[in-house]
Amino acid sequence: MAQYLNAATLLELARAAEARASAPCPCMKTPLDGWQSQPLSLDETQFGEIGTLSTEDYIEPTFSEYLPGKTTYWSVDAPIAPRYFPYNRCAVWECKLCGRLYLHYTEGGGYFVDRRIRAVKAGLVEDVPLES
User: Which superkingdom (predicted)?
Assistant: First the structure.
């Protein structure tokens, strides 16, 4: 299993990635600021998995979402709260060309599978405890 990354570690990695990634890159061809179905044009070989936000517990992660204010799942300004869905099921990918970070997970429904991706923005990472 990939290395578990908590919110503090994700935030640290995101800040470092943003500091070094200033030039345009093919990974930015499609805006990925909010969740998107993974574009067919995205070359997965350009990325490496550097960790996971999934804990190693044997407990099923929550499907509760953390969406304060008027944010929705698809909002570009929705917080990235690693303990909440869908972040608690995400792999963290790094672009091998520019160092930008992306979250990746597979949404599974009754009749479909959708690979989704979202850019990590340090200003959106929040360490929010799960509500009981």
Answer: Bacteria
- Whole-structure pTM value: 0.92
For residue 10, give Cα distances in angstroms to 25, 40, 98: 21, 26, 17
Supply the DSSP string of 24-83, one letter for each residue.
--GGGSS--SS-EEPPTT--GGGEEEEEESS-S-SSPPP------TT--TT-TT--B-TT
pLDDT tens digits along 39-85: 998 999 999 999 999 987 667 888 999 999 999 999 999 999 999 99
**Which residues are within 8 A (CB) of 106 and not within 5 positions of it... i.e. 6 or more apart?**
113, 114, 115, 116
